[in-house]
Predict the structure.
Amino acid sequence: MAVKNRPGSAKDSLARQEADLRRGAPGGKRFIGGTAAQSQRARRAQRETVERMAEIDSAEHRAREIGVPVSAILAELVQDSLRLARTLLYAPFRIAQALRRPREA
């Protein structure tokens, strides 16, 4: 039994034409009436959004993997910063004190 070749709907034809336009458009146009610059900006914004989401997801995954709450990590960071500041503050005094001591031979 032979199958009749029936044309598709008008919507399908238009969709096919639009897809062909997007594939063959110069400069990466995505939509009819859009400019290539608009498409490039949209793709750049989409990439930046995805990168931000990946960074956030990675940080959350690391925090869950470690099993330590973020607040504890931040508290440790503050403590380490204070220790470093104290060390840098007292370093010149310790150097001066070491230079004043008589050398033992």
